[in-house]
Write a structure and sequence with these properties.
- This protein is mainly alpha-helical and 228 residues long.
- The chain has a domain of 155 residues: Orthogonal Bundle (Tetracycline Repressor, domain 2), CATH 1.10.357.10.
- The protein contains 9 helices and no strands.
- Helix 1 crosses helix 4.
- The chain is elongated, with a radius of gyration of 22 Å.
- The termini are far apart.
Length: 228
């Protein structure tokens, strides 16, 4: 009996199969503990083929970071549609973020834990991804402040405090804080049974929007005077 011929798989499909396996191994075992033998076995290919397609363990890990980062960014941007009001954009963006990180825990582990702890060039690649998300969130916060300002101007009376104009520095700081909180909350939610993506998003939205709302309406929290 002759050997059974298998259908040749397109290179792009085979490469994604390898990346799927690599993300799972890297995400669960960590970069250093992961082996190319494990990745090749899980992908159902030979180790030489993995090297042929992706050159080295470092290049494979970088490819995983880029793919998972692009998928996360696309998910958040798709959720925070430009046709929505600013508060809905933030809510839908957060919900998309937590939904994606819950569905792809290995990918989130690669981005949030593994890539940051193994030096260059991995840390820089993750930092660039994070900068893009922070910039996007800063734009949402800035637009929300403008909306609040317009609303305040439209309904202002003598005893209504006007909305607060956020400076670029304030908006940037708020975006950094919000993204940092989302990252920590996603890690906690993925490790805590029973916490849904919607619950995680609602937790952060309640904290963020209440604080942003007070700030934008000219009611920022004031620290006590020295000595109090």
């Amino acid at each position: 009996m002759g050997a059974v011929k298998t259908k040749r798989m397109p290179r792009a499909v085979r490469e994604q199969q390898m990346l799927d396996a690599a993300v799972q191994i890297f995400g669960r075992r960590g970069y250093r503990a992961a082996s190319m033998d494990e990745i090749a076995e899980l992908a159902g290919v030979s180790k030489p083929l993995v090297y042929l397609y992706l050159n080295s363990k470092d290049d494979l890990f970088s490819a995983c970071i880029r793919r998972e980062g692009a998928a996360l960014t696309a998910a958040v941007r798709a959720g925070a549609r430009a046709d929505l009001p600013a508060d809905r954009q933030l809510w839908e963006g957060l919900r998309a973020f937590f939904t994606h990180t819950a569905r792809c825990p290995d990918g989130w582990s690669v981005l949030h834990l593994q890539a940051r702890t193994h030096g260059e060039p991995f840390a820089s690649e993750t930092a660039a991804l994070r900068t893009g998300i922070v910039t996007f969130v800063r734009q949402l916060i800035t637009e929300a402040a403008r909306d609040a300002r317009r609303t305040g101007d439209a309904r202002r009376t003598g005893d209504v405090r006007c909305a607060h104009d956020l400076s670029e520095q304030e908006a940037a700081g708020l975006a950094e804080a919000l993204v940092g909180a989302a990252e920590s909350l996603a890690a906690w939610a993925n490790a805590t049974p029973g916490v849904t993506a919607r619950q995680a998003a609602l937790t952060l939205m309640n904290v963020a929007w209440a604080g942003l709302g007070n700030l934008m309406e000219g009611r920022p929290w004031s620290p006590p005077a020295p000595g109090d």
